[in-house]
Amino acid sequence: MRLGRRMVAAAAAVAALAAGGCGGDGEPGASPGADAGYRVGLLLPESRTTRYDTFDRPYIEARIGEVCANCEVLYRNADSDAAQQATQAAELLAQDIRVLILDAVDATAAASVVTDAEARGVPVVAYDRLATGPVDYYVSFDNEKVGQVQAQSLLDALGGERTRPIVMINGAPADPNAAGFKRGAHSVLDGKVTIGREFDATDWSAEAARTGMAAAITALGAERIGGVYAANDGTAGGAIEALKAAGVTDLPPVTGQDAEIAAIQRILAGEQHSTIYKAIKPQATVAADMAVAAATGTAYAGQATTVTDNGTAKVTSVLLPPVSVTRANVKDTVVADGFYTAPQLCTGSYAAACHEAGIF
């Protein structure tokens, strides 16, 4: 992080406050410390994936409230539209936010957002996806490791039966995380299985996954597909729908990611083999702490950091470890952590599966 530049900006903010009173919600003459009120911008990328509004946003808002009681979080969701996200960023910058937490729809397109923020002296915390440009902090998971864990889960499910081809459904090309997942998965799968068909799911769309999977079924034959590497739970759901529509009753193992409640229920019911649980609360906590540090001109001093090169800057980063969830460890992961409660998961037809998995 270019802390010197940010501390200069913070000093300038202090001077401005002392000279003319508080520009935000704090008292006149207040320093931009954690106890002074200021605005934090939060831009999340889409609503197709349920995690963002269900978990990420409330966790970030709660943590900001804990460490800066007088701070206000201004939130926008871009609904997978990079141009809309740029407009939202401009709106937040015009409202005198002191720091921006940005989960970019398109990492490259987001460079203009980051540059605009820098020009205003507003530090940027890249959240979950590493944006291009002079980013100050980055928190996410080790993306190549995620792909490796997904792929190994698929190989474990296949066991010694690796003669049939698999289908690879990768994530959105505009999401830099998707490239990391793909690299990690290929590093494990290549040479171990035959990849019969591979495609990217635009915008992480379940419909794109369903359409691509239907084409793969036509090309390879429904009963010949040995497994499906799906980069997240939405694409996993689309693939499973296509398999069912093709009359497949003995579903091959299908991977996923994000531990969405529908995916956990599919895992319990035996329709999806695995998902990746990325504990969102620790990630959100780190992002909030980074944001407060950046806003107040101090260095982040939480979890151990590394450095990630985004092509523009070497960004101080925290990369958290992913966890594979199968039917065998649902109880010990997402339930034990309180990510979901047993009553949330074990509704209706899933009650019996929950009982078999030891959740009830």
From TrEMBL:
GO terms for molecular function: carbohydrate binding. Keywords: Signal. It comes from the Bacteria. Transmembrane segments: none annotated. GO terms for cellular component: outer membrane-bounded periplasmic space. Residues 1-18 form the signal peptide. It holds the Pfam family Peripla_BP_4. The keyword Signal applies. InterPro entries: Bact_Solute-Bind_Prot2, Peripla_BP_I, SBP_2_dom. The keyword Signal applies. Residues 59-298 form the Periplasmic binding protein domain. PROSITE patterns: PROKAR_LIPOPROTEIN (PS51257). It is found in: Cell envelope. This is D-xylose transport system substrate-binding protein.
